[in-house]
Amino acid sequence: MTNDILTTPALELGRRIAAREQSSTEVTGAFLDQIDAVEPAVHAFLAVDRDLALRRAGEVDAQIAAGERLSPLAGVPVAVKDLLCYQGLPTTAASRILEGWMSPYDATVVRRLQAGGLVILGKTNLDEFASGSSTESSGYGPTHNPWDLERIPGGSGGGSAAALAACEAPLAIGTDTGGSIRQPAAMTGTVGVKPTYGGVSRFGIIAMASSLDQCGPCARNAADAAALHQVIAGYDPQDSTSLDRPVPPVRQAAERADVTGMRIGVVRELGGEGYAPGVEARFGEAVAQLEAAGAEVIEVSCPRFEQALATYYLIMPSELSSNLARYDAMRYGLRVGDDGQHSVEQVMRLSRGQGFGAEVKRRIILGTYALSAGYYDAYYGSAQKMRTLIARDFAAAFDRVDALVSPVAPTTAFKLGEKVDDPLAMYMGDLCTIPSNLAGIAAGSFPCGVSPDDGLPVGFQVMAPALGDDQVYRVGAALERLVGPGYDAALSDRAAALPGSLVSMGKDAK
């Protein structure tokens, strides 16, 4: 039965719990046991409180028994990226500078999860302050990809994606600044969606780059992701960037899963030289299947996308530098040298020097330079102008098509340590995902099989206009019907192969 719980889709678990065929306490306990069993190998979590999760599950069981109407995911466990403030557990952003910090309030997304009856299992690992593409820059050690424990799970939200792939959670929450939901989803054979900017509240989420950050759902299939999206989305007056607009009909779109009559654009600039043959092969096959299913496929050119990487790596570090200035050792967090022998400035310097990791320091330096007097217009100002041109490329493309598609990343998951000393090579992994963050549109990653080169998952990116999130799910769910769900036999086998895995024990019992 444990194996069945761990591999069952979230919506089906929600149905069983609502029908009282299984309790939330039983379901939550099964995932907590799996976390205990495989965490030494995967390291997807930074904090788990078993008693807190089981207490919450018991409360949901009582609500259901009393006949209260909750969301379709009531009682279902969820893992939360450790950028979201949650009063029950430490919030560290995977940085030593916030080690042990307990938030005095909950993020809006956390409150909505709780209102929907979901049970938070714990906080997942990430690149420090979301600064990375591999979850190797975490101040608490890297996360390992369940498909191959010697490989990265993507980043910055590798912990959330790995937790799904390792059957440690059926749902997870991530944040996406330049691909941090979608790229880990692609690397782990799971689903991850970046909603339209402003579609999900950022209140209570530790900021990296405020004009780019967006919180979104992670799951093992399109329908579960859409249901989670529905729970967390919507206007929030506590977030000045929140959109006071109806949530797009994402669940209905995922259920429709039909591309008949849709115009789908393949972005010419997001492919070719530098893309692994296996990635291009699977992407091309997926496009052909969508066309055979009734979509009209059109090649689209977005010429400014070639400047997206440079644009992003001026805007993002500039905003990060500004946001991280608050970690000054004076109000909260790490304080080094507070012995009466050092000045305030020395304490700040020592604390930030020891508290921030190498990648965060690199980005702070880049951003501070780009914002400095005499360079602001040449760098940050010019990047904002290019950002406008990239948004215009999207607008022109969406005049011709309903959705755009591309690979999620040029390669499959690389080995841990392979690119740590080559920042540019690491940054190149975000070539396909960055443009949609710059434009603030909706985008998602859906599995399209494994690469014939190395047997690792390949992600298929779907992009749609602002507030066209339902189109992302419509195409992604249709693709899932054609090529199979992200959580398939291959991923189940990988989870079963993890040391101590309860999935393995369940398979053996059969």
From TrEMBL:
<feature type="domain" description="Amidase">
    <location>
        <begin position="26"/>
        <end position="472"/>
    </location>
</feature>
<keyword id="KW-0648">Protein biosynthesis</keyword>
<comment type="function">
    <text>Allows the formation of correctly charged Gln-tRNA(Gln) through the transamidation of misacylated Glu-tRNA(Gln) in organisms which lack glutaminyl-tRNA synthetase. The reaction takes place in the presence of glutamine and ATP through an activated gamma-phospho-Glu-tRNA(Gln).</text>
</comment>
<dbReference type="GO" id="GO:0016740">
    <property type="term" value="F:transferase activity"/>
</dbReference>
<dbReference type="InterPro" id="IPR020556">
    <property type="entry name" value="Amidase_CS"/>
</dbReference>
<comment type="similarity">
    <text>Belongs to the amidase family. GatA subfamily.</text>
</comment>
<dbReference type="InterPro" id="IPR004412">
    <property type="entry name" value="GatA"/>
</dbReference>
<keyword id="KW-0067">ATP-binding</keyword>
<keyword id="KW-0547">Nucleotide-binding</keyword>
<keyword id="KW-0436">Ligase</keyword>
<dbReference type="InterPro" id="IPR023631">
    <property type="entry name" value="Amidase_dom"/>
</dbReference>
<dbReference type="GO" id="GO:0050567">
    <property type="term" value="F:glutaminyl-tRNA synthase (glutamine-hydrolyzing) activity"/>
</dbReference>
<dbReference type="InterPro" id="IPR036928">
    <property type="entry name" value="AS_sf"/>
</dbReference>
<feature type="active site" description="Charge relay system">
    <location>
        <position position="81"/>
    </location>
</feature>
<dbReference type="Pfam" id="PF01425">
    <property type="entry name" value="Amidase"/>
</dbReference>
<keyword id="KW-0808">Transferase</keyword>
<dbReference type="InterPro" id="IPR000120">
    <property type="entry name" value="Amidase"/>
</dbReference>
<protein>
    <recommendedName>
        <fullName>Glutamyl-tRNA(Gln) amidotransferase subunit A</fullName>
        <ecNumber>6.3.5.7</ecNumber>
    </recommendedName>
</protein>
<dbReference type="GO" id="GO:0030956">
    <property type="term" value="C:glutamyl-tRNA(Gln) amidotransferase complex"/>
</dbReference>
<feature type="active site" description="Acyl-ester intermediate">
    <location>
        <position position="180"/>
    </location>
</feature>
<dbReference type="GO" id="GO:0006412">
    <property type="term" value="P:translation"/>
</dbReference>
<comment type="subunit">
    <text>Heterotrimer of A, B and C subunits.</text>
</comment>
<feature type="active site" description="Charge relay system">
    <location>
        <position position="156"/>
    </location>
</feature>
<dbReference type="GO" id="GO:0005524">
    <property type="term" value="F:ATP binding"/>
</dbReference>
